[in-house]
Design brief:
181 residues; mainly beta; 5-stranded antiparallel β-sheet
Length: 181
Amino acid sequence: MKIVKILCMSSLLISTAAMAFGVKVEKPVVVKGSSIGTYAKPGAPVDISYESEHVDTGDTSNINIILTSSTTTGTMKVKVKVDKDLHEISKVKKHLSYDLSESKKEYPLHLEVSADEEGLYYIRVLVSIKGQGMRAFAVPVYVGDAVLKTKKTAGSYSTIEKTDKGGTISVSAAQESITEE
């Protein structure tokens, strides 16, 4: 009887541990950002605010971008570029055009993307208004541990990580040579 109880308890513990390893995040973490109220570089009078879901690999991240402009006349042209390792679930035009008016101040974009590998990816938005200039924005997409891998040369990568306070750290292989004079 003791052997049966031990076998039942061990199978129960193993199945509980297996379920714990298979558990995914129930609700993705939403990363928010905005250029509203920050230093505005010379260029088009456009601000951005965004919400990006931090998800696991293979999951779909919903990205909501809102472009805001104080200009009420003219045309705002928007180019959207998604990192090559991000898979676009929703198809958004790469070249958009909005007629600016006094009645409309916000111009929303919605994208759905996913990635097969963990990392930090970007959706780049280039905005131009004729006679007003241009502005470039980058919306981060965090997947898994969200470590940015930038390609330096064929086969070698430099890892850029974020600190707890939001600063970036570039981790590189160090080489040392000692010469005597």
